[in-house]
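As the next step, I selected for study one protein, both as residues and as discrete backbone shape codes, as given directly below:
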Amino acid sequence: MEQNVTFAAVGIELLEFAIKSYDKAIPENTPYKYNINLDHRFNISQKNMFVVASVEIFGGTEEVELCNAKISCIYNIDNLSDFVKEKKVELPEQFIVTVNSISLSTIRGVLFALFRGTHLHNLILPILDPKEFKSNK
């Protein structure tokens, strides 16, 4: 039986951020490469889930690293204790897809705001399928 997860977004934290200088103009249609990882962390006593995204962006003709960021999206899960089994958190897969989707959208907006006024101002994180982020338990 699938159990409902009662949750709310409670915070966004920028943990790390660096834009690397690039001494050449980046052509308009440059293909960018992204390395994006999502890490789920929990504070069970405070009923918090942290979706920490690590983002590296590469581009230019040499595919140099242009930016790296680490952003945490924080959720409060009212009934988190219902999903703790033997000191492991086991949330429904559909919920994980939902928080991954919300987090990726949030990160896209945060990066868009951070890139404003820089040489990366035209770069928008692509739309990604949140189901593609598989768990390494």
